[in-house]
Structure formats: structure tokens, C-alpha cells
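Crash report, auto-generated. Payload:
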Amino acid sequence: MKSITIKKLYKLHTWVGIITGILLFVIAFSGAVAVFARPELQIWANSAIREPIPINPEQYHATLATLAQKVGPEYLDEVHVNFPRARSAETARVIFEGHVLQPDGTEKHEGFVFELSPKDLRVIEKFDMETYFSTVRFDMASFIAHFHADLHLGRPVGLILTGLLGLTLMVSIITGILIHRKKLAQIFTFRPDKSFSLLLSDGHKVMGIWGVAFHSVIAFTGAFLGLATVILVPAAAYVGFNGDQEKLVETFTAIKAPEISHVQQETQISEILSASKETRTDLTLTNFTVMGYGDKEALVYVFGTGSEQLGGETLVYQGATGEYLRSQANFGRLEGVTGKILDAMFPLHFGNFAGIFVKVIWAWLGLAMALLPISGIMLWQQRGIAAKNPSHSKRTYELVGRLLSGTCTGIVLATSVLFPVQLVCNHIMPSADETYLIFTAFFGVWGGATLLGLFVRAKHSFRLLGMMSALCLVSVMPLDIAFTGSHLFNVSTTHHNVSVGVDLTLFMLGLLSFYYLFYKGKTAGSIESPLIKAEGNK
Amino acid sequence: MDVMLHLVILTFAVIGCIQLNLAGSFTGRKTGRFLGLGFHVVALALTVFTYGEMRGFFVYLALLSLTGLLYCTRKLAISQHQ
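Recovered output after restart:
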């Protein structure tokens, strides 16, 4: 490749990194945490679902029958039930949906949502479907998951932004490989103690090369998930379905509505759920849908994860007889590899297809991905400061360093703060909506940290914000013990395995952060960056 | 059993990385390359056996990234480099 082309690629790699670097860190870091958002952090954040809640088929059968009578036959076209704990639900949730024909010939989906207590399926609250889905309610787990998806900028802006970031990450990966292709052979070289510049360049190279396959998968799936619903689906609907997006989704997704016979026959929910539990012990059942509840031709779709299908598996039953029909993937109706690829997108992005072991790997590699743009920007600073004729003034490099330290350490602190805030909210106002407090705490802390970063030297703000993050993480376990009485020594009686696991992990992470900031931070002083030295000499 | 299998997979992947490393660079020795490749193939086979074809493939890709990264940053590579 010509050296002039390499130079252009190098410039492209540098500027894409500088422009998107901080945002990429924010997305990648929140993604590393969001890997555990559902269900681990969801369970931790909601004390009502901390212990395992077995699915009781008879109870669901009876509850659905009672609620169906209450809502009336016009809302039984679709019935969706989410089991508590398994997915994003801190309650058991039942949605009754009817297809109402409009004067212009189109169908409108209307209905009711019931929130049920997870253990005895007692109705806690009833909502109109439109009100329910237009109301935003977050605990810290769903807050982090949504922040990763669209930065809480709303849709479509947020989704387009994160989707575009996936694309720019792909550009960075490709240009990075091309410009550093001669260094690819040095994949094992990492010299942390020689100089700060070598630490950065070796770290950037090692994280880039070893993680290239993972980063590519995340970038591609991230771009797809971000852009699919806001650009790809409307575009495909425009081309193939005269702009009818519902028709497109209906064609490609696995839930097919039956031909309603208008002959009433009880849907065998109890029998179907029992059969699913007994025959498919490898699946963790997450939710089920009844199309045409109470009709002779009703179909029941039971969803579960844990099998060899990447995106989960759907068991299909004849509702009236309980007869097992088939098993399929989510996009099982698509021929060839297309359905498999579409099915793989979400689980490959979040690493939730093979248990906690894989989630831990995804989180570690997500953190490595977050450090990649940061190390790149710091390298740019180092080289700029050390250059005889720098392209920018020293003040510019300093400002970038301060902004980097404030925003990036700030997002770590803001995320850490959410844990104690959630516990305090649960304790002080157990049934109240904590969304406002979660938002205020997160964005308040992040904004404050960014401002602090701008006014304090990068080294000091990094240390101070790091210490505060560590303190928040370490405080979670004692707070949880004080508020809920749940701890390691009574886990055999409480069965709060997941929440105690989260507490312990956060405690360990907090201690590790303290160790690094107190001990390692001092020993690393010998290889202090020229930028920090320059700031220090002022 | 499950934990043991994961430990075996991790060990094979790390040994594979060690075999491929020569003084901080990708080895030029044929024995090293064959041994490294062999260990990685066994680790991949065990991962596929544990998780199934498609899941196993992606789990192994991530595992390879992680073990390579950890091996490098734990200074194992450095000791041979210096």
C-alpha cells in the first residue's frame, strides 16, 4: 500500500477516534455493565424478586381466565405474559390486546396491562395499554440498559447515534488494521514499566489486535441494533410492503396469528406450561403469548432461553388441545442463514446466550473496548506534546486530557452511584417511582464530574473520582445488609444467590479500585505522562 | 464438571498463546506454530462440545481475545521479551 494512502488512513483513524472516542468509551463502559442488567441487576434492584420464583402453571391458568373475563372478549386477540425475574419484569405482567378496526380500514391495537405481584399473582395495578407504554419508569438496571441503547436521548435520535457509533467503530477497526499491519506480528509485546508512551501504544495495540474479532462483532451488531428499527425496517417496508412496517414485522417474526374460528374453547395454559417445563428442562422460560385466547384455533407460543439456539427458542402449541406443534427460533420463518443471523444479533451483542461465564467474558472485553479509544486519544496527546512542531497548542492537549478524565471517570462514578441510590430508594420509598431520582443522581454526578475535570488537573480529578467510585462500590454490600438483611451467611435460607453475588462482586471491584488507586497509582508515578508532568510543573 | 471443563478450555487456550509467542512476537518456529494451533483447536473443540456449534464458536472467539489479552498484560510475554 502506498505511503500516502497509509498517511490518509492514519489521519482518518486519528480523527474518527478523537471525535467519537469519549462517546465510544461511554457506550462501551455502559455496555459492559448492561451485560448484567437483565436479569442479574434487575433482580438485585428489586427485593421482591430476589429469591427464585417457580412458575406455577395452574396459578397462571386461573389468573388469566379471571382477568380475561374482566377485560371482555374484544381484548383477547393477543395475550402476552411475562414471568417475573426472568426478563425485565419485576412483576408478572399480563397484556390483553385487541385489534380494533378503524373507519379507514386499518387496525388499531388497544388493550390493558396488568401488573401482578410475582408470588401470588395478585393484581397490583391495571393500566390502559397506551398509557402504560408511554410512561417511562426505570430502576437502575433498566436505566443502564436504556442508556447503553440510546443514551436516553429518545428514539430515533439516540438509536441513530449509537448505531452510527457502531459504524465508526468498524471504520476505526479497519483503518487500524491497515495502518498497523506491520506491527500485527508483535501481538505479545506489552511493556508497561518502560515508559508511559510505550504503555499506551502497546496497550492500544494489544487490546486492538486480540480483541479485533470481538470488537468487530460488537460494532456490527451494535450498528445493526441501533439502525435496524429506525432506518432498516422502515426502508425495507418502503421497498417491499408499501411502507407498512407492521406487515413486514408480522411476515418475518415467529408469532403468527391463527384464523379465528369464533368458536369458544378453553385455552390449556396450565397443561402447556407444565409440558414446557417438563419436556424442556434446558430452557429457562421467560414469557408466553396466546394468539386468540379462548378460541378453538388459539395458538400458544412459549419463549425460553438456554438452548443451543443463540436467540432463544419458541415452543408452539395448539391452545385448545395443548398439542405440541413445533419449536422454532425467533426469526424461524426466514429461510436459510438470514433468520439465524437476525436471531444472533441481540444475544451476540449482549453476551446473554450461554450463562454467566460468557457474560463475564463479554464484560471484560467490553471494558477493553472502552479503553481502546481512550488509549488512542492519550497517544495522540503524548505524541502531540512530545513533537517539536505540534499541530495544536499545549493548552488544547491539556483541555482534551481534562475533558477525557472528567467525562470518562465521571461516567464510572455516575454508574457506581446508582447502586447505593437504588438501595436507598428501595428502603426509604419502597413502592414509589424512583425514575426521577435515578436520572438526577446519574446525570447530576456525571455533569459535576465533567466540570470538576475541566477545572482540576487530570491526575487529581482521576484519582478523586476514582476514589469516590470505589467508595460507592464498597458501600453497596454493607448498605444492602443494613436495609434488607440479606448477606452471604444467610444465603442458604434467603436464596438471594444473585443479589448476594452482585454485592460481593461490587465489593471486590471496590477493593481492587482502592488497591490500584492507593498502591499501584503511587508505583506508576515513575512512568508519569509528559502531559501530567507538564501540568504539574506549572 | 462444568467448572472443570471451563478450566481445561482456559488452560488449553493460554498454553496455545504461550506456544505462539516468541520474544513478544508471533513465533516463526514451525513447532511453536503447530503446537499453538493444536492447543487452540482442542480448546475450540471443547468449547463447541460444551456450548454447541454456533454458540461454541462465538464463545471461543471471545475467550481467545480474553486469554490473549490477559496473557500479554500479565507480563508473561514481557519476561520472554526482555
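Post-recovery validation: Chain A touches chain B at residues 184-192, 203, 206-207, 210-214, 217, 308, 310, 340, 344, 348, 351, 353-354, 357-358, 361-362, 364-365, 368 (CB under 8 Å).
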